[in-house]
UniProtKB/TrEMBL annotation:
Domain notes: Consists of two distinct domains; an N-terminal heme-containing oxygen-binding domain and a C-terminal reductase domain with binding sites for FAD and NAD(P)H.
Record-linked InterPro entries: Cbr1-like_FAD-bd_dom (IPR008333), FAD-bd_FR_type (IPR017927), Flavoprot_Pyr_Nucl_cyt_Rdtase (IPR001709), FNR_nucleotide-bd (IPR039261), Globin (IPR000971), Globin-like_sf (IPR009050), Globin/Proto (IPR012292), Hmp (IPR023950)
Primary gene name: hmp
The organism of origin for this protein: Bacillus gobiensis
A Pfam family per the record: NAD_binding_1
UniProt site positions, description: Involved in heme-bound ligand stabilization and O-O bond activation: Y29
Lineage start: Bacteria, Bacillati, Bacillota, Bacilli, Bacillales
UniProt-listed PANTHER family: FLAVOHEMOPROTEIN (PTHR43396)
HAMAP family: Hmp
Active site: Y95 (charge relay system), E136 (charge relay system)
Protein name, entry field: Flavohemoprotein
Sequence similarity: In the C-terminal section; belongs to the flavoprotein pyridine nucleotide cytochrome reductase family.
Keywords: Detoxification, FAD, Flavoprotein, Heme, Iron, Metal-binding, NAD, NADP, Oxidoreductase, Oxygen transport, Transport
GO biological process, one term: cellular response to nitrosative stress
Site (Influences the redox potential of the prosthetic heme and FAD groups): K84, E393
Cofactor(s) this protein requires: FAD; heme b
Length: 401
């Protein structure tokens, strides 16, 4: 535990972190990768290029300082980050390296930092690192000891590739050792590790599992990035274009905190934008099978019928009295209009949500692009949905809507 003096010093740095946090974390990553380029094999360089990783770390450091006297309040965030760390392979030996360069970055950006401040942050970082290390150790053990489970990465063969839309493809993965796949909670993801020819460093990406647990295979459903984003979509384009059925990739055991709550039988409302359908698809399948009497409304938004994925699967499951599938196309094609294959044209609106959701006292799960998520989140609040009833998944580093 930290002594009162250390806590006092850390809390006094909150205004500085609020002002210089992004600058500190940007410098931290620069220094870290200059001296330890091997860590580029672990960190997502897309998030580095877009600045999301720097922002996420700055927010985490700020939260740690603000709640240093009440660390129990950030445990939910710790668990979410720990899931990600376990999934990509962060180990205890990485923490002293990160701590060293975080302190160096603080000194480099905030000039003339008193020695006692650096010492206090060093002590605080040690306590926080220990919490992460212990939490992640438990997750590693759980993943390895589960039936069909494993530690770190394991080779899987691509047994099937199915084109779902113009930009989205489902990939079915089976263990190369012939053993059953470990079970998982609907909504969880796996990390995929690939070596792309011509690239110096390994790439790791997280993809939600888009099917229910079955013991035979995992399914991921991924979107190809557009040509202008090709440098930021290296992995998705590689999986789409280069890998074929029979090829193998390495994946880590399922992880993640964004999972379906099956302890309640409240109506379930799933709202997806684009490829955000993937974790919600798994949730729907599990709920339909294990909670057959639970009302389900699945609202699926996409650009058009050429961009929607898994809609036919959803329609088959929602073909019942207590289940409903609604489709919103931003710009429907002539074929969409002729087939009358959608329920709303344009964007989702709060008025439309108010009209189509019959029971507002439901559990809501959202997944999709960040602007979509923010908009739907606010709409739900506007129509009277309680904040604690809204659960969401954001791709990439932890953020809040």
């Amino acid at each position: 535990m930290l002594n009162p003096k250390t806590i006092e010093i850390i809390k006094s740095t909150v205004p500085v972190l609020e002002k210089h946090g992004k600058e500190i974390t940007t410098r931290f990553y620069q220094m870290l990768f200059e001296d330890h380029p091997e860590l580029l094999n672990i960190f997502n360089q897309t998030n580095q290029k877009t600045g999301r990783q720097q922002t996420a770390l700055a927010n985490a450091v700020y939260a740690a300082a603000a709640y240093i006297d009440k660390l129990e309040t950030i445990i939910p965030v710790v668990k979410q980050i720990a899931h990600k760390h376990r999934s990509i392979g962060i180990k205890p030996e990485h923490y002293p390296i990160v701590g060293k360069y975080l302190l160096l970055a603080i000194e480099d950006v905030v000039k003339d930092v008193p020695k006692e401040v650096i010492e206090a942050w060093g002590e605080a970082y040690g306590v926080i690192a220990d919490i992460f290390i212990q939490t992640e150790h438990e997750m590693y053990v759980e993943a390895a000891e589960k039936e069909g489970g494993w530690k770190d990465y394991k080779p899987f063969a691509i047994s099937r590739k199915v084109k779902e839309s113009d930009l989205i493809t489902s990939i079915y993965l089976k263990p190369k050792d012939g053993k059953p796949t470990a079970s998982f909670l609907s909504g969880q993801y796996i990390s995929v590790r690939v070596n792309i020819p011509g690239d110096e460093h390994t790439h790791i990406r997280q993809y939600s599992l888009s099917d229910a647990p079955n013991g035979e295979y995992y399914r991921i459903t991924i979107k190809r990035e557009s040509e202008e984003k090709a440098t930021l979509g290296a992995v998705s384009n590689y999986l789409h274009d280069q890998l074929k059925e029979g090829d193998s990739i390495e994946i880590s055991a399922p992880a993640g905190e964004f999972v379906l709550d099956q302890t309640t039988d409240k109506p379930l409302v799933l709202i997806s934008g684009g490829v955000g359908v993937t974790p919600l698809m798994s949730m729907m399948k599990v709920s339909a099978k294990e909670q057959p009497n639970r009302d389900i409304t699945f609202i699926q938004a996409a650009r058009s019928g050429r961009h929607i994925a898994l809609d036919k699967e959803i329609q088959e499951i929602t073909n019942g009295i207590s289940r409903k599938h609604l489709i919103c196309y931003e710009t429907p094609t002539a074929e969409d209009i002729e087939a009358q294959s959608f329920d709303k044209e344009g964007y989702i609106t709060s008025q439309w949500l108010n009209d189509v959701i019959s029971d507002k006292a439901a559990d809501y799960y959202l997944c999709g692009p960040i602007p979509f998520m923010k908009a739907v989140y606010q709409m739900l609040l506007e129509i009277g949905v309680q904040e604690e009833a809204i659960h969401y998944e954001l791709f990439g580093p932890h953020e809040k809507l």
